[in-house]
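DATA CLASS: polypeptide
GOAL: derive structure tokens

***
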Amino acid sequence: MPFHRGSTIRAGVSLAVIVLLVACTASPPVDPVAPTTGTAGQTPAPVSPPAVTTSPTEQAPVLESYAVSAAHPAAVEAGMSVLSNGGNAVDAAIAAAFAVSVVEPFASGLGGGGSAIIVPPGAEPQSYDYREVVAQDGVIPASGTGIPGFVAGMSALHQDRGQVEWADLLQPAIGLAADGFPITEFLALRMRSDYGPAAIDGQPQFHGWFRPLAAGDELVQEDLAATLSTLASEGPTSFYTGALAEQVTRVDGIDAASLAAYEVVRAQPVRGAFGDHTILSAAPALPGVALIQMLQTAQALGVGDAEPGSADYVEDLSLAWQIADESVLAHLGDPAFVDVPVQELTDPARNATLAQQVNTGSASTSAMAPLVPGNTTHLTVVDSAGLMVSMTNTITNFWGGADAQAVGGFFMNNQLSRFETIDTPSNQPEPGRRSVSWAAPTVVLDNQDRPVLGIGSPGGHQIPNILANVITRGSLHQQSLEEAVAAPRFHLQDGILTVEVEPTADLAARLDELGWSADVVSVEEAIFGSVQALQVDYDTGQITGTADHRREATFAIGAP
């Protein structure tokens, strides 16, 4: 196991109670616009649970619990209502993803994309890339908006593994949009920070009498509710060739032919050995190979022998990141257009050799843009059959960037800006191409190839460092999941170590020796994301989660 065992059945939820509703498999499908009830300042009441209306593939329970970890309590509740009524982890992940796109409109949604890793019990893992692509004319608009893949991705997951009717999975999101929910402190912060004021300007749902809505105010999104209702009743094709497509193609950079031609990429996740475990992570053009290379290089440098958080520990992980970051710049790109040497980059023997050649001066070689707030959103789901989903969704920069575009109540992405911010020979725009980006949904396997940890985080360029810190603490140092997630984070770029807390005297001295400086950032700057992780203990049949204090994420664990 990568972390100490946990036996808590239900913990960490900021809701007073997650209501486990009575199964309704004999009931007719829920009306697509059936409302939820919510009171200002309170979390909305649970919606009617989706019914299992398709014939599920029977899976004998291997666990005594199921769980959802997501960026917002309402998304956790949406996923838990599905699991408690017979849906599987894929169903719950879809419901949670749509729900979180309503309550975190700045981070993900219909106008964006994402990626996921599915690890079914006793079957081969599958990676899904439903990120945005360059339009067929090959032109990147000034807004950076690409052809969105979120809806197609949810549809692909549902077709491959879903058990609950598509329309039913959208009901929690429809209720949250139609009846509203109280604005949280983090949403209020995002509305008044960086791109927020410009993004919500002209969007009346975000405003009250003469001012933007504030924390505690109710946010009702009628246009988004109508869009989601159409998507529920007419199906996912409505977004690409139907009624919703007519709205989406009004956006700069989106044309009907490119939208209709969008395809989800199914692939094998990249994998590599680390300690006593195997790491599965997102396939190129996402940085799963960089995360694995970083972990393997750090292990070769001796991070497993260093006290977590010590100067040696920080140096080992940071030097390992420099090697991985250089590999991103040298090799990473869309594998449909360039060859990515995945086997070489994830070879522990080769990475051990690179560790012997590491140069502390490489800390000033990054060609990346300065650190920015860590956008995107992540969720992890495990059901009692042992099916695990690790999913990261995004519209790229918060609100879709400086040229935010909204249509149908949701915001469009600026994913294609990644071709400019990661301007390398292997990452150049072409029709249908996906850019290099930083989302890295990840699963850790035990020595029997069973998923023991699902993990991911928002955080942009910082994501590999965020995940490597947590995984190293658990896998090599046997820290609990709670300890590992709460531990201070750091990221080295251009000779500057960005940290959450003031360096200790030992670390400060080491930074002087290495010629690095430190930059302390506050939690409010949202640099270091929010880890959503679930750990599985097959000996006890229990699942453990933890709430990352950096944002308002939470988790819930229930018993079948």
